[in-house]
């Protein structure tokens, strides 16, 4: 009998703690830190609206706000180096869907003295712009990135 009461008390305490944790805390996402404008610095953010510039690597991404909710309609500009460096063929831009998701397909980025990567700039009128990059692991055919935007106000 004592064992059954102890188990019941423990179960109630654990359930109560879970309920408090679930309802008492708010999830928070930290804004993504920019790591420089990369090639955008010299040529700006103009890029054709296209989600595919080749084949070999697919980048899936999600744009969120600091409360971890999705940012719909954000403009995501992507640029990667090819065998001849940065050129117009290595650029594309997409808009996020209602869940803040985007998809970009291109050749596996080449290395030009640094690890292969894709430059990403995200713009939305209600949030601070951010420019970052996604490092492509050797041999990877796909990757995922989550970018969190800070509100302007």
Task: Describe this structure in a few short sentences.
This protein has 153 residues and is of the alpha+beta class. It contains two helices and seven strands. The protein is globular.
Would you kindly provide a written description of the structure presented here, covering whatever features stand out?
This protein has 153 residues and is of the alpha+beta class. It is built from 2 helices and 7 strands. It has helices spanning 2-24, 40-43; strands at 57-65, 75-80, 91-95, 101-106, 117-123, 130-135, 142-149. The strands form 2 sheets. It has a 4-stranded antiparallel β-sheet, with no helix packed on it. It has a 3-stranded mixed β-sheet with strand order 4-1-7, with no helix packed on it. The longest helix is centred in the N-terminal third of the chain and has 23 residues, at 2-24. The chain is globular, with a radius of gyration of 21 Å. Residues 1-25 have low confidence and may be disordered.
Summary tags:
4-stranded antiparallel sheet, 153 residues, disordered N terminus, alpha+beta
Task: Give me the side-by-side strand order of the main sheet.
Answer: 3-2-5-6
| Helical percentage | 10-25%
Tell me about the biggest sheet? 4 strands, antiparallel
* CA(first)-CA(last) distance: 59 Å
Number of helices: 2
How much of the sequence lies in strands comes to 25-35%
Average pLDDT: 80
How are the elements arranged and paired?
Blueprint: H1 2-24, H2 40-43, E1 57-65, E2 75-80, E3 91-95, E4 101-106, E5 117-123, E6 130-135, E7 142-149
Parallel strand pairs: 1-7
Antiparallel strand pairs: 1-4, 2-3, 2-5, 5-6
């Amino acid at each position: 009998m004592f064992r059954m009461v102890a188990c019941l008390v423990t179960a109630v305490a654990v359930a109560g703690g879970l309920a408090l944790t679930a309802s008492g805390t708010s999830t928070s996402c930290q804004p993504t830190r920019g790591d420089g404008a990369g090639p955008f610095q010299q040529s700006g953010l103009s890029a054709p609206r296209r989600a595919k510039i080749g084949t070999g690597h697919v980048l899936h991404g999600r744009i969120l706000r600091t409360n971890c909710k999705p940012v719909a309609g954000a403009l995501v500009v992507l640029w990667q180096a090819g065998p001849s460096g940065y050129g117009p063929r290595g650029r594309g831009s997409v808009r996020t869907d209602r869940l803040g998701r985007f998809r970009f397909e291109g050749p596996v980025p080449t290395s030009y003295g640094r690890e292969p990567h894709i430059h990403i700039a995200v713009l939305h009128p209600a949030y601070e712009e951010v420019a970052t990059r996604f490092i492509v692991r050797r041999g990877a055919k796909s990757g995922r990135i989550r970018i969190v935007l800070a509100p302007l106000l």
